[in-house]
């Protein structure tokens, strides 16, 4: 299935558009998977980083009270950290901190997938281009094109992570789960 999905992303001249269409079809099914391990197995086994980015982006949009119009970028990932709630309403019976732990897991997966789409050598930023154009870009040794929204400062990262940790402290109380703090540090 993952190989077929990956090929479906690449079949047209616009992998970016195809990945969005496929993610739009898969998204309702992900919402109905009741067990975290099954959701993670599906997301972790995806061959296409671009498709995984689009699917995770949809999940985070679904969990935000205030949507953003930012394109997928490092700024948007930081926005998700500050504005997302527990991702999925239909979840197995788990503690609240475990739901936040899952959200952070998906946020780090989104960050890794996004970095692979944008900065993956030698395909740097070419996963959004068709296979035909990608070969030319690789031969020309084209440099990755970062967006303006990918320019974030260490201070931005620090402030967003501190805001998130204080929000978690209020929601979860004491003792504060170490797994949450570790995942936030990893994302940072």
Describe the protein.
InterPro entries: ElonginBC-PRC2_ViralRestrict (IPR052119). It comes from Asarcornis scutulata. This is SIMC1 protein. One of its GO terms (molecular function) is SUMO polymer binding. The chain is an all-alpha fold and 188 residues long. It has one domain. It contains nine helices and no strands. The chain has helices at residues 2-10, 15-31, 36-44, 49-63, 74-83, 96-119, 131-139, 154-172, 178-187. Helix 1 packs antiparallel against helix 2 (15-31) and helix 5 (74-83) runs parallel beside helix 8. The radius of gyration is 17 Å and the shape is globular.
Give the strand tally: 0
Number of domains: 1
Radius of gyration: 17 Å
Biggest sheet: strands, sense, closure? none
Distance between the termini: 33 Å
Low-confidence stretches: 121-128
Number of helices: 9
CA-based shape = globular
Question: Which features does this protein show?
Answer:
188 residues; 65% helix; 9 helices
Can you describe this structure in just a few lines?
This protein has 188 residues and is mainly alpha-helical. The chain has one domain.
What are the SSEs and their pairings?
Blueprint: H1 2-10, H2 15-31, H3 36-44, H4 49-63, H5 74-83, H6 96-119, H7 131-139, H8 154-172, H9 178-187
Helix pairs in contact: 1-2, 2-4, 4-6, 5-6, 5-8, 6-9, 8-9
